[in-house]
Amino acid sequence: MKVLVVEDDKTIADGLHYSLTSEGYEVFICENKQMALETIRQQRFDIYLLDLTLPDGSGYEVCGYIKDNQEAPVIFLTACDDEINVVRGLDMGADDYITKPFRIRELISRMKSALKHYTKAYASNDVVKVGNIVVNTKQAKVYKGTEEVVLTALEYRLLLTFMNNKGQVLTRNQLLEGIWDLDGSFINDNTLSVYIKRLRDKLEDSNQNSKVIETVRGLGYRMGGNHD
């Protein structure tokens, strides 16, 4: 179980590293916002413990990035227990908060509770997420961040084909099989190119560095971004 602790107080950070490692967690420490964001972009963690006050920003900004790009529990570690700070953190999607100073046993109990709740909430496959693209298959709705994206039936089926094969290179024939004859329409190779372009136009940002749908030259296509 991998834990990222974002805490600029070295004494607290070292204490958390020792205590959580003793409990069997794999612990990574970041002392500021920039380091935390760089680490999160490179790897995924099962749970995040975020200090609210950081030298170059706040835990709110780190929480926002996590919730926009992943589905993982976040617990704020804060010396500020006033209602405004607590509500702001929870409204951003944080799963819990714990006020400093705290007992390590209480923190571990809160962590286990957050992880259990997360596992139960996402045990079904109703929500599929890649990067900032979220598909709620139960409602047949697609979101880019918090904004809903309207897709045609064939675009939606094509997106699901990509998301159900995350990280895999799919040939054009495999993609055609995924959307073939959905509504009685004839889908050919040229039509597939049109739908891939439409999906890219709707899901990708013009300044986005990593494409949602990557072209693998000579082979086919692959769903890009961070995979859940």
From TrEMBL:
<dbReference type="InterPro" id="IPR011006">
    <property type="entry name" value="CheY-like_superfamily"/>
</dbReference>
<keyword id="KW-0902">Two-component regulatory system</keyword>
<keyword id="KW-0238">DNA-binding</keyword>
<dbReference type="InterPro" id="IPR039420">
    <property type="entry name" value="WalR-like"/>
</dbReference>
<dbReference type="InterPro" id="IPR001867">
    <property type="entry name" value="OmpR/PhoB-type_DNA-bd"/>
</dbReference>
<dbReference type="Pfam" id="PF00072">
    <property type="entry name" value="Response_reg"/>
</dbReference>
<dbReference type="InterPro" id="IPR036388">
    <property type="entry name" value="WH-like_DNA-bd_sf"/>
</dbReference>
<dbReference type="GO" id="GO:0005829">
    <property type="term" value="C:cytosol"/>
</dbReference>
<keyword id="KW-0804">Transcription</keyword>
<dbReference type="Pfam" id="PF00486">
    <property type="entry name" value="Trans_reg_C"/>
</dbReference>
<keyword id="KW-0805">Transcription regulation</keyword>
<feature type="modified residue" description="4-aspartylphosphate">
    <location>
        <position position="51"/>
    </location>
</feature>
<feature type="DNA-binding region" description="OmpR/PhoB-type">
    <location>
        <begin position="125"/>
        <end position="225"/>
    </location>
</feature>
<dbReference type="GO" id="GO:0006355">
    <property type="term" value="P:regulation of DNA-templated transcription"/>
</dbReference>
<dbReference type="GO" id="GO:0000976">
    <property type="term" value="F:transcription cis-regulatory region binding"/>
</dbReference>
<dbReference type="GO" id="GO:0000156">
    <property type="term" value="F:phosphorelay response regulator activity"/>
</dbReference>
<protein>
    <submittedName>
        <fullName>Response regulator transcription factor</fullName>
    </submittedName>
</protein>
<feature type="domain" description="Response regulatory">
    <location>
        <begin position="2"/>
        <end position="115"/>
    </location>
</feature>
<feature type="domain" description="OmpR/PhoB-type">
    <location>
        <begin position="125"/>
        <end position="225"/>
    </location>
</feature>
<dbReference type="GO" id="GO:0032993">
    <property type="term" value="C:protein-DNA complex"/>
</dbReference>
<keyword id="KW-0597">Phosphoprotein</keyword>
<dbReference type="InterPro" id="IPR001789">
    <property type="entry name" value="Sig_transdc_resp-reg_receiver"/>
</dbReference>
